[in-house]
């Protein structure tokens, strides 16, 4: 006698047949059904979109994307595969990956693996075959929000269970992620070419290209864990300090702000990018705030207020500095006059700070420009020149 299958048995049988099913669930209950991409399972994070048409490998391996489910607005992803040379860190950092049309064929002379294979090997749960334009418009309208990607057996959780998991995930506001992306031990890159001095780099999620460009400007680059103290930094007797890019809320990094204030009071030249720009802003006495949906991509226009030049730049930030863009202001923390040096042309967001009375400046975007463009690479030269001038001034007893 044959037993009649129960609904539970039928559901299990269907799950065994179709493990490629996947769903993207947003915290407001919006759902997008698609196909599994990369590893199978579940992942939670903040859903954001990146507008670059190229450079998906640099995006995936940028530590600033930790905790975020990244949606690529370009529809065709994966065609050039993956290689070891374009890694911006030792691993893939995104919490999840969302694409419309994954390439069925990898075709590039530098390719060593497929993107799908690397995602699966790294345990990155993704989804494909959904209307990424619709998701992008939704996020632009309502703002970045918590999300989850469910595939494999997790795709067959009830919609209510999936939504409950998403809504139980961590908010990005108030979240400190520096400890999860920073190096565990200090290490040094030797200067390339004419030696200028040494720079202490606080690794808050630094990219490989940044360290390379600092070394190529003649710096011995001392890369330090984010847990380092001001005393430990000063023991190295560096000629300058650099704060890197990184994920999380700058408002949850008061310890790094205090470290920066200590070194600024001692006159140590400073350059910060991205998260390092936000921390300089807070050290100077400005507030930071969360952007509705952030800036992510390699095609963001920024105005250099001094030259009037418009630079096309690489961005990855969900927070920004609240500082007046129409005038020079005084630092509430006692560091003198400060001007906003760069402004985003899409929404007038502060994209750079320049201190007029101390040797310190920062930009919100990524001047190492991996995977491009390279309009802002000159900022590493500006940093080198500032350090040289500072050393000469000290030697002359000024």
Automatic annotation (TrEMBL):
GO terms for MF: carbamoyl-phosphate synthase (glutamine-hydrolyzing) activity
Record keywords, A-Z = Amino-acid biosynthesis, Arginine biosynthesis, ATP-binding, Glutamine amidotransferase, Ligase, Nucleotide-binding, Pyrimidine biosynthesis
InterPro entries in the record: Anth_synth/Amidotransfase, CarbamoylP_synth_ssu, CarbamoylP_synth_ssu_N, CarbP_synth_ssu_N_sf, Class_I_gatase-like, CPSase_GATase1, GATASE
Alphabetized Pfam families for the sequence: CPSase_sm_chain, GATase
Residues of the active site: 274, 366, 368
Pathway listed for it is:
Amino-acid biosynthesis; L-arginine biosynthesis; carbamoyl phosphate from bicarbonate: step 1/1; Pyrimidine metabolism; UMP biosynthesis via de novo pathway; (S)-dihydroorotate from bicarbonate: step 1/3
Q: Where is the Carbamoyl-phosphate synthase small subunit N-terminal domain?
A: 20-150
- CDD domains xrefs: GATase1_CPSase
Segments carrying the region annotation (CPSase) are: 1-194
Instruction: Name the positions where L-glutamine binds.
Output: 64, 246, 248, 275, 278, 316, 318-319
Its assembly, as annotated, is: Composed of two chains; the small (or glutamine) chain promotes the hydrolysis of glutamine to ammonia, which is used by the large (or ammonia) chain to synthesize carbamoyl phosphate. Tetramer of heterodimers (alpha,beta)4.
User: In UniProt terms, what function does this protein have?
Assistant: Small subunit of the glutamine-dependent carbamoyl phosphate synthetase (CPSase). CPSase catalyzes the formation of carbamoyl phosphate from the ammonia moiety of glutamine, carbonate, and phosphate donated by ATP, constituting the first step of 2 biosynthetic pathways, one leading to arginine and/or urea and the other to pyrimidine nucleotides. The small subunit (glutamine amidotransferase) binds and cleaves glutamine to supply the large subunit with the substrate ammonia.
Instruction: Please give the family membership noted in the entry.
Output: Belongs to the CarA family.
The protein's name: Carbamoyl phosphate synthase small chain
What is the species of this protein?
A: Agromyces indicus
């Amino acid at each position: 006698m044959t037993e009649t299958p129960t609904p539970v048995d039928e559901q299990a049988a269907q799950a065994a047949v179709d493990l490629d099913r996947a769903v993207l669930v947003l915290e407001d209950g919006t759902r997008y059904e698609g196909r599994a991409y990369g590893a199978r399972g579940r992942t939670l994070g903040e859903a954001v979109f990146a507008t670059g048409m190229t450079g998906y490998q640099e995006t995936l391996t940028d530590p600033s994307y930790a905790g975020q489910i990244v949606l690529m607005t370009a529809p065709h992803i994966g065609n050039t595969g993956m290689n070891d040379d374009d890694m911006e860190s030792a691993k893939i950092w995104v919490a999840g990956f969302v694409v419309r049309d994954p390439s069925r064929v990898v075709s590039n002379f530098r390719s060593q693996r497929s993107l799908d294979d690397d995602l699966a090997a790294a345990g990155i749960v993704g989804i494909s075959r959904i209307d990424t334009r619709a998701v992008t418009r939704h996020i632009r309208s309502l703002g970045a929000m918590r999300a989850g990607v469910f595939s494999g057996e997790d795709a067959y959780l009830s919609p209510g269970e999936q939504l409950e998991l998403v809504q139980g995930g961590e908010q990005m506001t108030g979240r400190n992620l520096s400890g999860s992306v920073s190096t565990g031990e200090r290490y040094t890159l030797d200067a390339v070419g004419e030696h200028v001095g040494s720079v202490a780099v606080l690794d808050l999620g630094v990219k490989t290209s940044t360290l390379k460009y600092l070394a190529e400007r003649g710096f011995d680059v001392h890369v330090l864990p984010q847990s380092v103290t001001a005393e430990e930094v000063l023991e190295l007797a560096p000629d300058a300090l650099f704060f890197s890019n990184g994920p999380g809320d700058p408002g949850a990094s008061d310890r790094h702000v205090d470290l920066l204030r200590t070194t600024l009071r001692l006159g140590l030249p400073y350059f910060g990018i991205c998260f390092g720009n936000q921390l300089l802003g807070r050290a100077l006495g400005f507030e930071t705030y969360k952007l509705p949906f952030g800036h992510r991509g390699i095609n963001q226009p920024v105005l250099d207020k001094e030259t009037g030049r418009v630079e096309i730049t690489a961005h990855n930030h969900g927070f920004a500095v609240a500082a007046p863009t129409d005038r020079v202001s005084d630092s509430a923390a006692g560091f003198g006059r400060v001007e906003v040096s760069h402004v985003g042309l899409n929404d007038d967001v502060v994209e750079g700070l320049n201190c007029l009375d101390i040797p310190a400046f920062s930009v919100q975007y990524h001047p190492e420009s991996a995977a491009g463009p390279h309009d802002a690479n000159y900022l590493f030269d500006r940093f080198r020149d500032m350090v040289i001038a500072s050393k000469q001034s000290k030697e002359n007893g000024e």
